[in-house]
Amino acid sequence: MSDLPAMSSEPILRTRGLTKRFGGLVAVNDVSLDLHVGEVHVVIGPNGAGKSTLTNLLSGDLPPTAGEVMFEGRDIAGCTSDHISRLGIGRSYQKTNIFLPFTVFENCRLAAQSRTPHALKVFRRVEGYAEINRLAYEAMESAGLSHRSARVAATLSHGEQRQLEIAMCLATQPRVLLLDEPLAGMGPHESQRMVELIKQLTADHAIMLIEHDMDAVFALAHRLTVMVNGEVLESGTPEQVRSSPAVQLAYLGGEELLHD
At what angle do helices 130-142 and 104-113 cross, to 10 degrees? Predict the structure, then answer.
């Protein structure tokens, strides 16, 4: 993807010097990056590079050891995952995280319920909450699952389950989406469908994508950050990263793969 889309001049989320230590192990070391609405920022690197740890730091699943995470001008480093989610940062996981016995609609409705500003009344049927239902239906439509609304999640294909997880994120009305390997385990048809979904979501969201599928990476990335051993090796446009000798040597396997 060679042309950058129209986006806000200021990043909606930015990190500076973000670091996470587990005893003597430095899993993420001094990482700085910006996320803009209207942009897919892809983070790649070999296993153990610190990509998922970085996602966990941004989503509040882990507290940082040092550094800052600024979201819409406020420092959210160390805030709980629930608080960060309510601010407007949604995430998916490497392992699909949905309620398998429930229908697609019920999954999305539960996600939308988590944003209710007041406790639900015990003796009122949840179907009566029009706003919650509206958010659930809109999320299903955005994720391409309206035709599956009554299907039990356990009966969906792997690709559709990954779509459902994203739909549940959308039901919480996030401005930032952190997607951790959403194409993992998919065949070509499902992968292409997920790529198209992410493209559609880019206009209204800032997206950080972790992915190993290089075809998808270069189809989606407006910005690309390469991590190795917890550190940023290179960051810039896909063209800049493609031409980096350090990246070719350390991760992507040389000129041939980068320019195929």
Answer: 120
Distance of CA 164 to CAs 3, 14, 23, 140, 225, Å? 30, 27, 37, 8, 27
Q: From CA 139, how far away is CA 142, in angstroms rounded?
A: 5
Q: pLDDT tens, 187-234?
A: 999 999 999 999 999 999 999 999 999 999 999 999 999 999 999 999
Q: Which domains are assigned to the chain?
A: 9-88+175-260 (3.40.50.300), 97-173 (no CATH)
Residue 16 parent element (H or E) = strand 13-22
Helices (H), 203-253: 214-220, 238-242, 245-247
Q: What residue has token string 């996320």? A: 35
